[in-house]
Amino acid sequence: MLKAKIFVQLKASVLDPQGKAVSNSLHSLGYTAVSETRISKYIEISFESDDRATVMQQTEEICKNLLANPNTETYHFELEQQN
Amino acid sequence: MLKAKIFVQLKASVLDPQGKAVSNSLHSLGYTAVSETRISKYIEISFESDDRATVMQQTEEICKNLLANPNTETYHFELEQQN
Question: Which uninterrupted H or E stretch holds B27?
């Protein structure tokens, strides 16, 4: 079994309103050292397969076609062997 | 400058409807090897500080009081030195 660990993040140039809201809350709560907050998605997909090449290719397709918005987001992932 | 890299995940016992929806979509698209999908939050907080002990303690408080719902979610984080 293989598990894909996928990060889908807003491009650095894209404003993150949810992160901005968290930063503002943290400042109000007294955490004045906080300079920036960015909120992203972390997705784990488990595959009933041990074929790394196929799972790698399928995960790439899934990120491109379903999980990430190519206009505003980037993604990266790694595969991990599961028992 | 320190950056806190925080994962906020649903407890394993809690149903993840968003992940279930993605799994169903992937099966419909022909990715039949997919057995489970879990969707989590990944949050990066940048601190204008190099005091690891304080930042560690503040991040712990922030996770507990703002970012994670203790009833349904768990969190873990690591600190990374930034230039």
Answer: helix B17-28
Residue A4: C-alpha distances to residues A19, A74, B14, B38, B59 (Å): 25, 16, 20, 11, 27
Domain count, chain A: 1
Any A CB within 8 A of B39 CB: yes
Find the CB nearest A66 among B1, B19, B25. B25
CATH number at residue A33: 3.30.1280.10
- Helix (H) / strand (E) containing B25: helix B17-28
ipTM over 0.85: yes
Q: Which of B45, B56, B61, B74 to substitute to test the interface with A, most A CBs within 10 Å?
A: B45
Which pTM was predicted? Answer: 0.90
Q: Which domain holds residue B54?
A: 2-81
Q: What is the pLDDT along chain A (83 residues), one digit of tens a residue?
A: 999 999 999 999 999 999 999 999 999 999 999 999 999 999 999 999 999 999 999 999 999 999 999 999 999 999 999 87
